[in-house]
Amino acid sequence: MQISGVGLNKIWILISASFFLILTLSPARALEYGKLKRDKETTRIFQKYEFLPNHTYYICGQGNIPHAIIGIHNDYTLRKGLWKQVDISPQLLRSWVDQMDTIYGFQPYGSKILDNYGKQVGIWFSSKQWTTVVLEEDNRIAVFTPEPPGFRGGK
After folding, report:
1. pLDDT in tens, the chain (155 residues)
2. DSSP the chain
3. Do the bridges between strand 55-60 and strand 84-86 make them parallel or antiparallel, or are there none, so unpaired?
4. Angle between helix 90-99 and 40-47 (nearest 10)
5. Whole-angstrom Cα distance, residue 109 to residue 99?
6. Across the beta sheet with 68-73, what order do the strands follow?
7. What are the domain boundaries of the chain?
8. By C-alpha distance, which of 36, 42, 40, 39 is closest to 55?
């Protein structure tokens, strides 16, 4: 079964909106937000097909080439949503990194994933430079997946 780009975008919007509502309506404490901070060293780590110890890796996207790769420090638990946990290897990372610029049509780069105090909780690699990072109780975090290609006029 193949989903058209328009259909995929509608599904992504619905899932993202639902995920946001679940987070905002839960009876937990007030939401705290983290952010991405573009980082040359993180870009270098991915371009050298290296990965950080004490991190669990996840990808998002359709097909064999991810839209984004993240590594979350093992002190934190990722609310998975659309992220798929992967057993990372240099060969797998090489395959993805070497092809990722074809997804959006421009070079991906690395960013640090920071909590609301500026502490690094993970790393991000994608051509998209923005996302929402929500910090929850008990070192749980939610990292929204990037928009799919074709959304808002991209490839």
Report:
1. 445 555 656 665 666 655 555 555 555 457 899 999 999 999 999 999 999 999 999 999 877 889 999 999 999 999 978 899 999 999 999 999 988 877 777 889 999 999 999 999 999 999 888 899 999 999 999 999 988 776 554 44
2. ----HHHHHHHHHHHHHHHHHHHHHSSSSPPEEEEEEE-HHHHHHHHTT---TTEEEEEESSTTS-SEEEEEETTSEEE-TT-EEE---HHHHHHHHHHTHHHHSS--EEEEEE-TTS-EEEEEEES-----EEE-GGGEEEEPPPPPTTGGG--
3. antiparallel
4. 110
5. 13
6. 77-79, 140-143, 133-135, 32-38, 109-114, 120-126, 68-73, 55-60, 84-86
7. 5-153
8. 42
Please name the residues in contact with 56: beta carbons below 8 A apart, sequence gap of 6 or more: 71, 72, 74, 78, 85
User: Closest Cα to residue 39, out of 106, 110, 121, 108?
Assistant: 110
The structure tokens listed for 132 are: 């929402």
As beta bridge partners, residue 38 has 111
Amino acid at 98: D
The rounded Cα 1 to chain-centroid distance in angstroms is 25
